[in-house]
Amino acid sequence: MAILAPSLLGADFKNLERDIKAVEEAGAKYLHLDVMDGAFVPSISFGMPVIASLRGCTDLVFDVHMMVEEPVRYVKDLKKAGADLICVHAEACRHLDSTIAQIRQTGAKAGVALNPATPISAIDLVLPQVDMALIMSVNPGFGGQKFIPYTLEKVRALRKRVRELGLYVDIQVDGGVTLDNVDTILEAGANVVVAGSSVFHGEPGENVRKFLEIFGRTGNRDS
Ligand code: DX5
Ligand code: ZN
To answer: Is 89 in the pocket of ligand 1 (CB under 6 A)?
Structure first.
């Protein structure tokens, strides 16, 4: 079955523990943590101290999305803070191959992300080195944006490419995912889905259950 990764950016920052417990109890397995530096993206979110402190209150897989210039500077500290998977933007790494290798050396899983306008060919050569590829379906930096439809073509093409290469690589989609479009996203070949506003706005536990119900119906195509 596909994996739901609720994005903490959509949560109530006054009540992070309460919101995390709600999605965990409803059956989510991942927690998507958006780290922003105010340089790669306009906004600033949170960093290692917050991640380390949350590590104490949940067993969810910490899926850290680094929207940061030269994220290689932080991989060791992120792993220490409790990251299970560290995902870096191809556009933000001067030495992508080396950055991925350094993530793997920490023992964390490695992911590589692409902005909407970056073609999938940018990561073709590193696909054998990563556990996950993230296709951004909005311009990174903020929650609550509208899904950009052309990114679905990238998901389809990437799933095809991963199959051609005989690899096992998770394909994650992030940005503007809702209960109404998630089915199409899974059909295109994604098997890890990030959802911020559509999980945390309203009743988080109930929203997670609705997503998981759709995942159950959509089956086990690519996970
Ligand atoms: C945006 C972040 C997302 C964001 C998604 O740059 O990478 O993870 O939280 O939020 P929604 O699901 O509201 O589009
Ligand atoms: Zn994200």
So the answer is: no
pLDDT tens column, 22-58? 999 999 999 999 999 999 999 999 999 999 999 999 9
Q: 145: closest CA among 174, 180, 116, 175?
A: 175
- How far apart CA 152 and CA 166 sit, in angstroms, is 21
Q: Measured from the CA of 139, which atom of ligand 1 is nearest?
A: 6
Mean pLDDT calculated for residue range 122-139: 98
Residue written as token pair 């790494």: 93
Alpha carbon distance 124, 54 (integer Å):
34
Name the residues around ion ligand 2, CB cutoff 5 A. Answer: 34, 65, 174
Mean pLDDT, the chain, integer:
97
**Per annotation, catalytic residue among 19, 37, 63, 174:** 174
Other CB atoms within a 10 A radius of the CB of residue 79 amount to: 18
Cα(190)–Cα(154) distance, integer angstroms? 10
Atom of ligand 1 nearest to the CA of 144: 13
Measured in angstroms, how far is the CA atom of residue 33 from the centroid of ligand 1? 10
Q: What would you report as the CA-atom Rg of the chain, rounded to the nearest whole angstrom?
A: 16
Mean pLDDT of 199-217: 97
